[in-house]
Here is the input.
Amino acid sequence: MTSSSSPSENARARTWFAVGKAGVLVRQDAAAFALPTREELASLGLSPEAALASGTLGDTDCFAVAVPEDLALPPGWSNLTIRSLMTAFDAPTFYAAGTAGHVLDWHTTSQFCGRCGTHTEAVASERCMKCPKCGLTQYPRIAPAVIVLVRRGDQALLARNGRFPVPFFSTLAGFTEIGETLEETIHREIYEEVGIRVRDTKYHGTQPWPFPHSLMVGFTAEWASGDIKVDGEEIAEARFFSAHDLPLIPPKISIARRLIDGWLEEMGVPSPPDRPR
Ligand SMILES: [Zn+2]
Here is the structure.
């Protein structure tokens, strides 16, 4: 595990993620975006020496630098949301940026002890903030959530979330509550959101989802009973779709899309290309 200490001078090549409320700082060169260098960060008034180690990207070590809200950017620099890094960069860079954002979010929100209020200190040997007074340790939080493709015969259940900025249809998802197994989360969430019962849950795969600290655990399930009845709040619309009559679906980088593509492959239907943005 990487430590949260400042980068040493003899490290490998580095990738720098400068992350603030507005997103990730990038320089635009012609039509392409580039991440900043250490020198560029310093010239923008940021402090690369205060960076937090945030893992690796290819053969580079990643470092996360917090960007204050009032930072004035010279021409050529802008902020991209972590979500838009999915298309502006490649998938590994998107994930590394998400990790950088997660590490910074944890560091910012664990500056004080949650039990006694004392200012915490970084532990040198691991990613941990510790209270010098009462000893409470604070590690980064990771919130598990399930995401489920429900099948009924040769159809699959897709739902449109009323809060999505783009009106696409996706698989159902929900956070695990204290004391629940992932399977219990699946049954509870699906019943709450669309009023149906499912059976035969099968693990599919996982995806870290840095908004701000989820781990999406993908499953498939079979419809067992009940008619779709949406809650009308989180879920605006839900239907069983045929593979030949798909609505707008999520981008290929998402685990929702991997679940949908796995089903399409079984149906012998090609996966549609990502929608241009
Ligand atoms: Zn304390």
DSSP finds five helices and 15 strands in the chain. The mean pLDDT is 91.
